[in-house]
Amino acid sequence: MEDVMNESPAGHSPQTKPGSVSMEQGQVMLDGPDGVAVTMTPEAALETGRRLIEAAERASAHRPG
Q1: How many CB atoms lie within 10 A of CB 35?
Q2: What is the rounded CA–CA span in Å between residue 58 and residue 39?
Q3: Rounded to an integer, what distance in angstroms lies between the CA atom of residue 40 and that of residue 46?
């Protein structure tokens, strides 16, 4: 039987590899798994980065040990 506790809330397994980030023509691009691609302004990328770090820190604190 599959262990549901290891799945993300959306029902998908979480990615274990980080996305690839680049800069082109003053925009920040994030390439992730399964063809996911996001282009952001520098301001949006900075705020997204802050939010990712904050959420990752909270999630790490809740991992079983």
Answers
A1: 6
A2: 26
A3: 9
For the segment 5-20, what is each residue's pLDDT rounded down to a tens digit? Answer: 445 566 778 899 999 9
Q: How many residues does the chain have?
A: 65
Amino acid residing at 53: I
Q: Quote the tokens at residue 49.
A: 């980065």
Q: Where are the alpha helices (DSSP H) in the chain?
A: 42-61
Query: For the chain, first and last CA: distance in Å?
Result: 23
Q: Show the tokens assigned to 18.
A: 């980080």
d(CA 50, CA 4): 29
Q: Give me the residue label for tokens 């980030």.
A: 21
- Taking only the tens place, the pLDDT of each residue in 30-62 is 999 888 999 999 999 999 999 999 999 999 999
